[in-house]
Amino acid sequence: MQRGLMMSVGRIAIWAGAALLALVVVAVSAIFLVFPRVSAAPDLKLAATPEQVARGDYLFNHQFACVGCHTPELEPHRFSRLFDKARLGAGRHMGGPADGMPAEIYAPNITPTALGGWTDGEIYRAIVSGVDKDGRPLFAMMPYPSSYRIMDPEDVKALVAYLRTLAPQPVTLPAMQLPMPIPIAMRFVAKDPAPETRPDGKDEVALGRYLAITGSCFECHTKRNDRGEPAGTPYAGGNVFALPAGGVARSANLTPDAETGLGNMTRAAFIDRFRSRTPEEMAKIAPEAGDMDTEMPWTAYSGMTDADLGAIYAYLRTLPPAHAAVVTYEAAPEKQR
Ligand code: HEC
Ligand code: HEC
What spatial distance separates the first Cα and last Cα of the chain, rounded to whole Å? Predict the structure, then answer.
């Protein structure tokens, strides 16, 4: 009797286990079938006018700072990063578990060597929807969810036109091995874009908002939740970045709070801060062991126009001041005496 009961309980457990497993398999297959909810790549054939390519150059190398991830760095420099102009778009290693990342992360080669077989529409879709040629969702370190989703279609086309003109770079970086559940999670992150029209300079604040979002200022200067999504007070800073030589940098509070944010920074001082970090200025600094570095791609942004930097400043002034003190540089503990 007892024994029979035990057996049936055991059998029920096995059946329940099998049913659960089947459910999980069905659920995961359903996720793979239904997500990502991304439409077919747009049917595009860009004529790539010289104006479009010049615009893409400005966007890639300065305004959107794509160069910051997709180009190898020369020696890490204090306060900024110097990108190897001879290898634009060749990609680079961005960090790994030692820097708190889930795996070794690579921003891939996006020169014609790598994207030669992609259509214009497939490159367009990768930038704003976050899937590769075959529809595989991209790891969201590529800031498509919070920065590029709203990009003006004319800006995206200029980028694609420019990418086609990059010198081919015969570099193959290792494939990323993202641990579960990240590849599944990314299926919910990649989705169709929500394009906005880039405001013209007449509405400076609206233009500044567009630039601050698409230029990743929002993405980096807003605290993230444990899924890596910006979730804190917008632009109040505090994201932590491990630095190659040890120690950390934290993104600054960009809201107009007088004590802990940019409240006392004039427009001219704001623009000057960027101009003091051009590649030419940075090349004058000889990096020494223990110098602090920063994740912010200052050298890329330093080439933005006064009008664009001024618009970002004007927009940041309209934010509610957030009282949030941030220590932007902190040396590794063993280096603090
Ligand atoms: C913060 C770093 C970062 C920035 C900034 C960035 N990317 Fe990426 N990008 C990545 C990473 C990492 C991947 C790889 C994601 C993956 O394979 O899962 C990627 C993938 C891509 C791909 C797909 C390539 C492939 O082989 O699958 C394209 C195209 C691309 N990026 C273009 C751009 C453009 C254009 C910009 C600027 C508008 C940009 N990226 C800005 C990190 C970045
Ligand atoms: C990859 C992350 C990242 C991105 C993208 C980024 N920042 Fe930063 N930012 C930081 C970090 C980290 C610091 C603190 C260290 C330093 O000064 O570089 C910082 C500091 C600053 C400071 C200095 C504040 C002070 O009081 O010293 C300003 C101003 C600033 N960022 C503005 C911007 C703007 C505007 C954008 C967009 C165009 C932007 N940042 C994009 C990470 C980022």
Answer: 74
* Span from the CA of 184 to the centroid of ligand 2 (angstroms): 31
> CA dist 323 to 32, 50, 261, 285, Å?
43, 46, 7, 33
Q: Is residue 208 part of a domain?
A: yes
pLDDT in tens, 274-290: 999 998 888 887 777 66
| Ligand 1 binding pocket includes 126 (Cβ within 6 Å) | yes
Which domain range does residue 237 map to?
A: 50-335
pLDDT in tens, 167-215: 999 988 998 999 998 998 999 999 999 999 999 989 999 999 999 999 9
Q: How many domains does the chain have?
A: 1
Cα 35 to averaged position of ligand 1 atoms, centre (Å): 20
State the Cα–Cα distance between residues 253 and 255, nearest whole angstrom.
Answer: 6
CA proximity to 276, closest of 307, 247, 309, 246: 309
Instruction: Please state, in angstroms and rounded to a whole number, the distance separating the CA atoms of residues 216 and 140.
Output: 13
> Is 11 a member of any domain?
no
Question: Can you say whether the dihedral through the CA atoms of 275, 278, 283, 286 is positive or negative?
Answer: positive
With respect to residue 40, please indicate whether it lies within any of the assigned structural domains.
no
Instruction: Decide if 31 is inside a domain.
Output: no
